[in-house]
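Take a specimen:
=====
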Amino acid sequence: MGARGSGSVFARCGCRDKRGRRRGISCPRLGEAGHGSWYFSLDLPRHVDGGRRRPRRGGYLTCDAAADARDRLSVPQPGDPGGGVLTVADWLETWVGTRVRLRDSTRRMYRGHIRLYFRRLFDGVLLAELHAGHVEGAFRRLFDEGMNPATARRLFSTLRTALTAAVRERLLSDNPARYIKLPRGARPHAVVWTKRRVREWRETGIRPAVAVWTPAQLARFLAFIGSHRLFAVFRLIAMRGLRRGEACGLRWEDLDLEEGLAYISRQVQEGPDGRLRACPLKTESSQRAVALDPQTVTVLRAHRSREARRLGESGIEAQGWVFTDEIGRPLSPDCLTRTFGRLVGESSLPPVRLHDLRHGAATLMLLAGEELKTIADQLGHSSVVLTADTYLSVAVELGLKSAADAARLVLRAGRRPPGGGGVRKRSAPVLAEITA
């Protein structure tokens, strides 16, 4: 909590002297009834950069009214064991620091939101005086600066959750963020790197926000990295859609290579101290059994043999992790992302993110004719609705392919009609137009 603020109460007016300068607190008429108004100021702990914070409020008719207003802000509030004057930023820092059941990655995200945005957006704003206008103005500034709606909504979710906690602690009587409505914006959907998109990317450098490789492009990439030490993890993610933390969290005891199954029960994340640790999965539905194709099983067997030989030759004791760094520790998700980005750049293929391999795995399942429920279960989605919404655009492109396949079937049937050849001659130009 913020430290108790000290402050003062004083009178001032708008009178000017003979030189036109405001008299302020030095006006000799301040003692007269009805002349000037009363103010108070508060001394808050200095900013991180050493700057002073002295919020001042005024316009009170009497000294007592100004003092009462000061005391309402500086006297400890119910539920505030530390006491003192809190700015919005003070509370946000306190809220993050005192939350117990919070994933390390979520805590880092919250602290990033505070450091990069909320400190400057609510600079000097006292928590007790926060109102909807402050919140609306802050997000208007973000949109003016070019922030996309999706990022703004993540920030808004952080702020609203923190202010709800302030209401629960009786530091606020109401949550001003609940009156603000942000534009939803269009969530980016996965699209396929078609020849047209590849050509446009090479000409303009502009790429889709979320794009997946075609099966042929994926095959080229896997062939390109076939000799890389981490080939197995990239193939596993590409074929079965594991999240990067889930892949890094796999232990050999989680794999049943005889039955072709991988049991997903944990993930690896980097903590605030920079150390890797095993954590619970993202959601309950993330805990699942993933079916492995025979080729991936073969790749994993070969990977196990190579890693055992490598660690043995280096005198490193194996710790049971499937994918490790050079000295046998669990692989860092960030390291996996950086390595993947470098390999994609070297391959000359159109760019995709590591997470896009997960989208690509869903695309492969769609191409294979899997039902959405099966795909949702294999990806660890909480509902089929999420799966359908995420891959709607991919399904549209696959639908176009299905339409072309259907037209080719009609074309073949038209070339071999049960009747005479006259029907074939009349039908062929029409069918050729359909398939053009």
Remarks:
- Residues 6-74 form one domain.
